[in-house]
Each structure stands twice: as structure tokens, then as C-alpha cells.
């Protein structure tokens, strides 16, 4: 096996050295080594891909659908996405020029930020949040500016945003993710509109990661693009709504002029997404079966959420208002201290329950734990019983 010539390691992109360690996967891997551990760590659905989507992928393969697709994705999938955005969120996007298919929302994040960032550019990020935004911004030579939302039930307020914009007048973009990973918190239509109004008179591009938009439990999801489409890039995809994480299909929608450069960067990275996965995503976004599958999964998540919130509250945890996604962000009971990494490590090793320390998600996450309820009710019940025992012994 080759070993790298040592001096070559000095030639790397300097931005690697600026990256902060993320830790989620490492923590999960360490915890997985504990025999019999129950894991509430994973940010992916525990359901299988619905049958109609599987069949669409199979049909695509058997019909030799095996050639390069357009860089922005197949026309059928873009049309299905346009219909989905219209039907679910009353948004109007032209499948020709205003929608691009990506390799998961992950690649969409990279493409959107690549199209915007010059070295040193600031990107505003409401935290705690999915750490990839900070990592990609840093990797592209930009500077993430974290806006800690923990004092406002993890919702970015217009005043906070205005203050941040005043302090960082040259920032290029605002990244918002709701429903939120890691908090499960989402924004009401009014909160979204107020934020949009705070952005409207600026040149900020809002990168709205709405990957959990189909998993809102009480009320409706409102996209910020409804109010400021001229400066919003929506990111979404099939990973969470249709349990299709491994199919790697996401999309970006935005105004034509902005989508030109974003799609160009995406094309440079991927050429195109995989044909069979796009066929499956067309079934996900474009058929009644796709819609019904999401509704079924959502009902199961909602039942689990209700169980877990009630059980954790009984045990003395306060949780952020969990109205969406499949996460709870729980404050460690005061009697157990404020060190989330130490608490989560001990809970994994001694209590045999794995959760993710809140501080891994940026400013405002200290003293919290992220619990994913994308796992069976049996696992959740076992986890709660073990957490109760662990707190008694601690
Ligand atoms: C907020 C958020 N955005 C994006 C992603 C990545 O999604 P995808 O599988 O579509 O790349 C995740 C995955 O956990 C996420 O939590």
C-alpha cells in the first residue's frame, strides 16, 4: 500500500487547516462500539424506500436508462419537483432554468456556496445547526458567522438578524434550516415573513435548507421563498421525506439568473445525478404514492415525538419546541451539569444510550443533547428506561 510522500502534505488547500472537527460521525462510531447500545444518533429515516419508488428505479435500470442526463437533472424529475413545490408550498418555479437536481442537498449546499463565496466572505448561519454549512463555507475560503438562537427557543428573530447584518454589512448569504436539525424547531408563517422583511432591503442571498419541510407536525411549512423569491435559493430533496438518503437526490430552486451560476458549478462537480435514482425521485415527488408514503412516515414520527417529549420531560429534560424533522434538542437536567460532551460520553459508556452532544452543532448548543427519533418505538422505550436508570445512578 502506498504511503503519501510527506512533503506533499504541505501542499494541501490551506482551508483544510481552518476546518473545525465536526465530531458527529466519530461520536457515533465510538458509541457503536459499546455492546448492546441503543442509538438515537442517526439523522436518517429508519424506514425502507417505499415500493413505488423502488419499482421506478428498477424500471429505469431494466429499460437501459443508463446515459448521461442533463446536468440539471431529467426533465421529468424537474417537472415533478416544480409540481411538488407548487402543490405543497404554493411556489412557482420553471423546471427549465429555475430548478437543478443535485446529489443530495449536501451537494446543493456546496454548489450554492461555491457560486457565492470569494475568499474572506462572511456567511451568516443561524445556530445550532447542521455543521456542514460551517465546514463548506470554511473549505471555500469563507468565514461563517454563527448567530446563536438559543435565547429565543432556537428561532432566529428579526431583531437578532438586523443586529447581525448591521455588524456584518458585507455578508453574502444567510443560511436558514427549518424544520431544524438539530433542534426540531420550525418557524411559523409569520416568523418567516418577518425574517424575509428583515432581509428584503439587503443583498443577502437566503440559502433555505428545507430538507425537512415535509415533516412538520403541527401546522404547515412556509418557505421563505414565498416572500423573497428574488433572493432565495431553496434546498430540498428526497432523503428525509421519502427515506431515500442512499439514493442521493436533492434539488435547488431559485431565480433564473442566480440558478445559472449555481447550476454551472453543480454540473462541474457531478455531470448529472444517477438515472435510476432520478426515476425513483420522480415517483417520490410526482405521484400520489409518493405523497402517501410521506404521510405514513410522518404519522409514525409524530407518535414517537409525542412519546419521547413526554418521557424526557418526566425525567427533567427541557426540550426546544419540536414541531418538525425527527430530532429533540434536550437540555441536560441542571443536577447533571452543563458539559454535553462529557454527559453524552458517559451516557453512552455507562447508560448504553447514544445521543449527540449539542455543542457539535455550533454556538448555542452547549448543555444540550440531540436525540433522533428516526428509530423504532421499542428502541425509544428502551432508551428512555436506560436514561432514567442512568440519571438515578449518576
Ligand atoms: C439540515 C440538513 N441538510 C442537509 C442534509 C443532507 O441531506 P442529503 O441527504 O439530501 O444530502 C441533512 C442530513 O442530515 C440535514 O440534516
UniProtKB/TrEMBL annotation:
Identify which top EC class this enzyme belongs to: transferase
Give yes or no: UniProt keyword Iron-sulfur: no
Q: Which SUPFAM superfamilies match?
A: PLP-dependent transferases (SSF53383)
Sequence intervals crossing the membrane: none
A Pfam family found in this protein is: Aminotran_1_2
Ranges of residues in domain Aminotransferase class I/classII large: 37-387
| Source organism of this protein record | Limosilactobacillus oris PB013-T2-3
Which GO terms fall under biological process for this protein? amino acid metabolic process
What PANTHER family has UniProt attached to this entry? Answer: AMINOTRANSFERASE, ASPARTATE AMINOTRANSFERASE
Indicate the family of this protein: Belongs to the class-I pyridoxal-phosphate-dependent aminotransferase family.
Q: What is its EC number?
A: 2.6.1.-
Does the record carry Transferase as a key word? Answer: yes
At the top level, the lineage of the source is Bacteria
Which InterPro entries does the protein's record reference? Aminotransferase_I/II_large, AspAT/PAT-like, NHTrfase_class1_PyrdxlP-BS, PyrdxlP-dep_Trfase, PyrdxlP-dep_Trfase_major, PyrdxlP-dep_Trfase_small
Q: Name one GO molecular function term.
A: pyridoxal phosphate binding
> What's the cofactor?
pyridoxal 5'-phosphate
Descriptive protein name? Aminotransferase
Provide the alphabetized UniProt keywords. Aminotransferase, Pyridoxal phosphate, Transferase
